[in-house]
Amino acid sequence: MWSVLLILAITGAMGEVVNRHVDNNTDVKFGFEVDYTNNQFLLDGKPFRYVSGSFHYFRTPRQYWRDRLRKMRAAGLNAVSTYVEWSLHQPEEDQWEWTGDADLKKFIEIAHEEDLLVLLRPGPYICAERDFGGLPYWLLPRVPVDGLRTNNEQYMQYVEVYLNEVLERVKPYLRGNGGPIIMVQVENEYGSYGCSMEYKTHLRDIISAKVGTKALLYTTDGTEDTMLRCGSIPNVYTTIDFGANSNVRKNFETLRTHQPRGPLVNSEFYPGWLSHWQEPFQRVKTGVVTKSLDEILSMGASVNIYMFYGGTNFAYTSGANGDRNMYNPQLTSYDYDAPLTEAGDPTTKYFEIRNVISKYLPLPNTSIPSVSPKGDYGSVLLSPVVKLLEPLGEGLFSTVAVEAPEPLTFETVGLSHYLMIYETTLPSTISDPAILSAIVRDRALVYVDNYLFGILSRTSEIHSLNINPYGRKLKLLVENQGRLNFGHGLYDYKGISNVTFGDATLGPWRMVGYQLDDMSGVSDLETITIENGFLRNGPVVLRGNFSVSGEPMDTYLNTFGWGKGVAFVNGHNLGRYWPVSGPQVTLYVPAPFLKTGENELIVLELEYVPNTRKMKLQPQPILDYKPILEQ
Length: 631
Prior knowledge:
Layout: E1 4-6, E2 20-22, E3 32-35, E4 40-43, E5 46-48, E6 51-55, H1 65-74, E7 79-83, H2 86-89, H3 104-113, E8 117-121, H4 153-170, E9 181-185, H5 197-211, E10 216-221, H6 225-231, E11 237-243, H7 248-256, E12 265-270, H8 286-298, E13 302-309, E14 320-322, E15 327-329, H9 348-357, E16 378-381, E17 383-387, H10 391-397, E18 400-404, E19 419-425, E20 434-441, E21 443-448, E22 451-457, E23 464-467, E24 473-479, E25 495-501, E26 504-505, E27 509-514, E28 533-534, E29 540-548, E30 555-558, E31 565-569, E32 572-577, E33 586-589, E34 597-605, E35 608-609, E36 614-618
Parallel strand pairs: 6-7, 6-13, 7-8, 8-9, 9-10, 10-11, 11-12, 12-13
Antiparallel strand pairs: 1-2, 3-4, 4-5, 14-15, 16-36, 17-29, 18-27, 19-24, 19-27, 20-23, 20-25, 21-22, 21-24, 25-26, 28-35, 29-34, 30-33, 30-36, 31-32, 31-34
Helix pairs in contact: 4-5, 8-9
């Protein structure tokens, strides 16, 4: 056996990989390919099978990348799979992000240093339960209806720019250049969406022009015959995905009808599952997972466990499932009931999976991970400092303000996420209570003369309210709860439309958008007076402080008793909370977000402030809460 030592030297801005050596100084030909005759992969010319785990670098602070990757390697995995999120790296058409938590090259380098190969999934569409399936919001007004994920000229122009940016950056890390990237996926589960050969081959050619034979191109699709037929691409390796409750042999038999030779691959083997607000937290029993994994590995197949570490949808990055009519937004937590928890702690599932892997691959000589200590930082008293609907709130937080005869979408006015106020005047000709009707995406608090009258909800299919006609000013505060990330409803514009009051069509409209990314203007504000309970006069921003003694530890912010909103710790957006709906009650607070000494907690509460006005920072997560009405 050759003992290979890979020496990475980063030179200049390109991060060029310089050179590779073996223990007798003989050059090695690096590469990853398919041996169709023997139904196996060849890594650097030798038979190879991978057992990989999914970990998306954008779902945890970069300070934790090495920790999570090291724990994956300790479980016996020899590869890591990650998506590349287009919207993270190109949040606006003229803006690129490749540093900090978006430093893709650094993530790949750490994976290599931790003895893990890399399966790269650059999309352009990734699903991943992320807002808009990872596509940037600004595509919507620039690409015609039904142009997404097609060979549409406008869409493909943007796609080619994005893919070339990604692939040029990762080129030095391809296996053929001595790096860890052995496989690059073309699109993502395309057979569940469309069947355009022109689109698939166009994507293949863009990627192949950068990757060549330096890594293996592959597709991933479900196990239905139509999915595989529509998702497979000539000269691209075909793989499938299925979960622990599936029939392993039957699924691989279906794969064989589309990929007759070569190694069997399950590119997404699910040890857990995703969860939505207003439903039970999804769990998959460990015994079911290990039984199916053992069967997969006993057949000589390669596998990627999705997710091995899930992490968190910080800020406004969580997506939603459904279609143009049904809508189910996903949790902030992406714990996924994975082998490693949201905080990166090993579970019973982790160790049982490790035992199965040990039957087929040698385990590394590394320490076994344990549960890390968590911080118990007590209760935080939150004091109100500004009301969102008042002039000061608009001055501090508004991102865009426009007027138009009809309500405009978030995307049309350049608002990527969260809130928009739609304001108009009610007609004075209506003398009796009338029905206010609107199509709302996704949730709207309805105010008449700054007094809350009710809520319109896409999820609950509440599209109308009985409104008193004596008020004059109508405001609808619309929340974008996450764009659809799967299926044919991807054209998920946010905002309101078809608004009527009785027989009258309303307008003109004044629209004020709030991205609420930067809360630094709150720190110096003085306390104001509000009434606890339901916020009849609009959302409120509250602020509090708490102390951390010694080295900061991970902790969880308990939002029980509050209504709905977002929370920030030291300027870091922890994401949405909605404990009244469940099942998630706590927000994960990574230690890198904290500092020794005084820390600041800022909350934007939309609907309800409890009498205590307190949130608690505690050592335990609560992801399985069932609201009283549902118990």
